[in-house]
Backbone:
């Protein structure tokens, strides 16, 4: 596997019991990384996923319950990683929530929850991960932003601004952490077939697919492959970048 | 080497100080060598040397050698 070989590396994928997070966890495990999975509250589902990962790929895996919106819970998660492995090499900051609302219909709760998970949660995770990575002066952090964080989209002022903030986070952290050997990049998926996007009404879904130049909705695996690139030594001289994974989608 | 001597050496190495410096007299931002960038280096070196993971509040509050000793004690280091 060469530069894609992740044996001996420990990877933490937040929000990884389904969708892009789960696909990423599987792909990292397929490249022999030890993988830490994460869910918010469903211990049973998380444990099932851990078992699935171990048996399918023969790697070590751990499941950590924690809500990205809870700073104390996030700190506990990193203490647990420290106790279990004494290292962290890859963080995929994937946990996120999506709710749409037009201007004038955005509730306070929606703003608070979206930013607490998508933005503040990503900052808490980045800080915890960097603390472990700097011990070994290496590491790769991949933040999941979104095409709408780059271009904006009607009906998505909250989601898009929470994801746009991750671009600033990525670029600033990349500058600060580069001297410590830690790379920070972002992936900006377009329209991807996940439980999160399946909540959209059928007409909205079809409208979005027609805006994709490659003529198909993205798959979680399409995104996971780019995350693997950024997590691995294939991208050893890449930091502070935002990579679109959108099939040529136009918004 | 005692843990106290080890901590002194970490301060001297991480902050690039002369071996003669009295580390107990130092304070965060009290000398040019101990700025915020050096502070994060110091935290990393302390964590590696004593195999601990400091809390964010520890990192923010560790503004002197004696406070560093107290923090390490709280993390179970005999010092």
Residues:
């Amino acid at each position: 596997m060469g530069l894609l070989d992740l044996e001996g590396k420990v990877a933490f994928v937040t929000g990884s019991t389904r969708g892009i997070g789960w696909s990423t966890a599987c792909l990292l495990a397929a490249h022999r990384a030890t993988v830490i999975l994460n869910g918010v509250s469903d211990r049973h589902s998380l444990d099932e996923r851990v078992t699935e990962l171990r048996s399918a790929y023969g790697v070590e895996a751990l499941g950590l319950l924690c809500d990205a919106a809870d700073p104390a819970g996030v700190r506990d998660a990193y203490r647990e990683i420290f106790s279990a492995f004494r290292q962290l090499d890859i963080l995929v900051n994937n946990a996120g929530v999506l709710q749409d609302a037009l201007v004038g219909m955005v509730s306070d709760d929606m703003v608070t929850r979206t930013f607490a998970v998508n933005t503040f949660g990503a900052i808490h995770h980045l800080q915890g991960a960097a603390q472990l990575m700097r011990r070994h002066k290496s590491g790769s952090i991949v933040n999941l932003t979104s095409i709408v964080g780059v271009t904006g989209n009607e009906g998505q002022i909250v989601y898009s601004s929470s994801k746009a903030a991750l671009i600033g986070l990525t670029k600033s952290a990349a500058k600060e952490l580069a001297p410590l050997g830690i790379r920070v990049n972002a992936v900006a998926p377009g329209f991807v077939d996940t439980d999160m996007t399946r909540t959209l009404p059928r007409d909205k879904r079809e409208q979005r697919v027609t805006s994709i130049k490659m003529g198909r909705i993205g798959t979680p695996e399409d995104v996971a492959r780019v995350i693997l690139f950024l997590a691995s030594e294939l991208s050893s001289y890449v930091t502070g970048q935002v990579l679109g994974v959108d099939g040529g989608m136009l918004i | 080497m005692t843990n106290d001597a080890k901590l002194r050496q970490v301060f001297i190495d991480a902050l690039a100080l002369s071996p003669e410096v009295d580390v107990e007299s130092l304070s965060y931002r009290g000398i040019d060598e101990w700025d915020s960038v050096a502070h994060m280096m110091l935290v990393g070196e302390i964590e590696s040397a004593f195999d601990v993971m400091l809390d964010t509040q520890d990192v923010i509050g560790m503004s002197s050698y004696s406070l560093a000793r107290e923090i390490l004690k709280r993390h179970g280091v005999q010092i």
Notes: The radius of gyration of chain A is 17 Å. The interface with chain B takes residues 75, 78-79, 82, 86, 127, 131-132, 134-135, 180 of chain A (CB under 8 Å). Helices of chain A lie at 19-30, 43-57, 71-85, 108-133, 147-151, 157-177, 202-210, 220-231.
